[in-house]
Amino acid sequence: MKSSPHRPSIELLFKRGLGSAEIARRLQISSSTVRILRRHFAGGPFILQQDWAPSHGSRSTLAVLEAHFPGFLDKNLWPASSPDLNPMDFSVWGMLEGKIAGKVFATVDDLKAALEVAWASIDDGYLRRTVNSVKKRSRACVKARGSNFEILL
User: Fold this and answer.
1) Taking the CB of residue 136, how many other CB atoms lie within 10 A of it?
2) Could you name the domain of life of the organism this protein comes from (predicted)?
């Protein structure tokens, strides 16, 4: 099977030492994730930032990243425990939490559905401003020598 822009090649996944069930799962996840990313960013540039979650260094994750995002920056290029430099952590998760706060969800699927609706309602301008603030936050982090830097913003 030939690799496409939407799917990693089976050969690449097997080289990573994955079993057939894991390959099928990763193909499904990667196809839906890539489709969402392409729709959201409409072909524009974006950075897929990894943190130090153990799954981000797994063979299956690396295989998907190599197939869909050649030249990606791996988790080793981001400081460990750096939520102040991750737009999802310093801004977006708080906004999503605010949009669903005070609601009770009967199931995890109900919570996921509410988060998807909340995500879809976030203004693209807000996301751009949040991502664009990373450069300023990174400079402040360097200036503070890795210490608390939000006072410098």
Assistant:
1) 11
2) Eukaryota
Q: What's the CA gap between 27 and 10, in Å, rounded?
A: 9
Residue reference for tokens 């996301």: 127
Nearest CA among 8, 40, 39, 5 for reference residue 26: 8
Please write the tens of the pLDDT for every residue from 97-137.
Answer: 999 999 999 999 899 999 999 998 998 899 889 988 988 98
Give 90's DSSP letter: I
Longest dimension (CA), the chain: 53
The mean-pLDDT minimum among 13-17, 29-33, 34-38, 141-145 falls in: 13-17
Three-point CA angle 94, 68, 54, nearest 5°: 55
CA distance 128 to 126: 5
The values of phi and psi at residue 112, to 5°, are -60, -45
Select from 51, 55, 107 the least CA-distant residue to 82. 51
At 100, list the tokens.
């669903």
Per the listing, tokens 């998760």 go with 93
pTM, whole model, 2 decimals? 0.52
